[in-house]
Amino acid sequence: MGDTVTGRDLGGVFVVLEGGDGAGKTTQSRLLDQWLTAEEIPHIMTYEPGDSWLGQRIRQLVLSPDSGPICSRAEALLYNADKAQHLDEVVIPALREGKVVVCDRYVDSTIAYQGAGRALDPDEVGQLARWATAGLVPDVTVLLDVDPCEGTGKIAAKDRLEAAGDEFHLRVRQHFLDLAAAHPQRYLVLNARNTRTQISEAIRHRVAGLLGR
Ligand SMILES: Nc1ncnc2c1ncn2[C@@H]1O[C@H](COP(=O)(O)OP(=O)(O)OP(=O)(O)O)[C@@H](O)[C@H]1O
Ligand SMILES: [Mg+2]
């Protein structure tokens, strides 16, 4: 693996939320936003794919039912083009200003979802993503882990699960866990079935530590 740079190397703190569909990433990013605001800690909230001018167009291309077929390699390149632009336009400038950057999904989602489709080797997708992101790794990745078969009683998630098949989502979960296990010091793996409050307190504790509080 090539050289890596963390958010703190650039002067800020880079926090990423990862996990399967409906695991609670957006819920927890909102709670973290509330806490950072209350503590008057300069921060931005962002997400992938799509939170840049180019990313919005890429997101439309990849997710719109109006699009034609997109082969696996083209899809991987599009998601990674989104990342490159997002870092350049949004994430890195904020980190250089000393801000906390909270990002809903990042490299691990690309590896887990693309790799779980079995069309591409997850290690190769990881190499591509590291190149696209110039080795920027989160100071902490919060992985909201949940068995996709159990879920947390979420009908929307269940619909998507049925659409793509249980096996696919089980492999997505395993990819996330494997990535966390490879660099345990950079991850906070939490049981997504815990209460919102329990989860948000664990996240705050970790982020406060990264801020030296
Ligand atoms: N800890 C929790 N326990 C029970 N339900 C939760 C918990 N956290 C979130 N939820 C509920 O689960 C649903 C999905 O949450 P949320 O939208 O935050 O997930 P997500 O990971 O952002 O999903 P997506 O992958 O679709 O963006 C919402 O209805 C939310 O209110
Ligand atoms: Mg969400």
UniProtKB/TrEMBL annotation:
Gene3D superfamilies the record matches: P-loop containing nucleotide triphosphate hydrolases (3.40.50.300)
GO cellular component: cytosol
UniProt: ATP binding residues: 19-26
EC number: 2.7.4.9
PROSITE patterns per record: THYMIDYLATE_KINASE (PS01331)
SUPFAM superfamilies noted in UniProt: P-loop containing nucleoside triphosphate hydrolases
Single GO molecular function: ATP binding
A GO biological-process term: dTTP biosynthetic process
InterPro entries: P-loop_NTPase, Thymidylate_kin-like_dom, Thymidylate_kin_CS, Thymidylate_kinase
Catalytic reaction equation(s): dTMP + ATP = dTDP + ADP
Keywords from the UniProt entry: ATP-binding, Kinase, Nucleotide biosynthesis, Nucleotide-binding, Transferase
Boundaries of every Thymidylate kinase-like domain copy: 17-203
Listed Pfam families: Thymidylate_kin
Functional note: Phosphorylation of dTMP to form dTDP in both de novo and salvage pathways of dTTP synthesis.
Family: Belongs to the thymidylate kinase family.
Protein name per UniProt: Thymidylate kinase
Organism of derivation: Cutibacterium porci
Originating gene: tmk
